[in-house]
Amino acid sequence: MTEDRLDRRLLLRQLGIWAGLVLLPGIITINQPVVVAYVFWGVGFFAALVVFITIARMTQTTELWPWLVASVLPWVINLVVPGNPMYIPVFVVAAGGFAAWIYLRSSATDRLLHDGVEGTGIVIEVVEPKATSAVVNNGYVRRRVRLRVERPDKAKTYEAVLRDLFKVEELPSPGDKIALRIDPEDAKRVAAVPVEKPDEPAKEPSDEDETSSEA
Prior knowledge:
Layout: H1 8-28, H2 34-59, H3 64-80, H4 88-115, E1 117-127, E2 140-150, E3 158-167, E4 177-183, E5 186-192, H5 207-214
């Protein structure tokens, strides 16, 4: 079983709200006093950040550069637009394009995980980053993994590269098997099936609990 499907309507709504919160403060504060402008900019920035955190959780966005764009773009708009309104269309395209990229990428990943061909990847090599990699998402690191892919509808195996997050203490090793979903239109595009945590067994009452209940 894979995770629940992405709610695309909710994602589209959240992206629209985010884009509005990024663009409107700079537009509203045209010809406004500096103090008023800073208030609108600050409120808009924090509101947009809260919405983007929600979007990132929905789409499992962990790369650094989308966070940088979401953090820097509002301030660029706020500083440029009030004195140069002619740049409004440029920033509308920039914010809209970034939101569209998140939506299209997340939708494609969701389709791959739920509609892709089942397969198995046998680890050939875990490619270590040349630069020091930061630990993200509570002890996870992003790695590129070379795999030998086996799928039931093809006799020959082939190589593909999986880019995913792994727990620091559970990095795969050569020979390990990873459950995959494979893009039927692009066999090289693969995604790891999220591993579901087993339900914890119900705790049996101890002798001390029985004694205390009898008392």
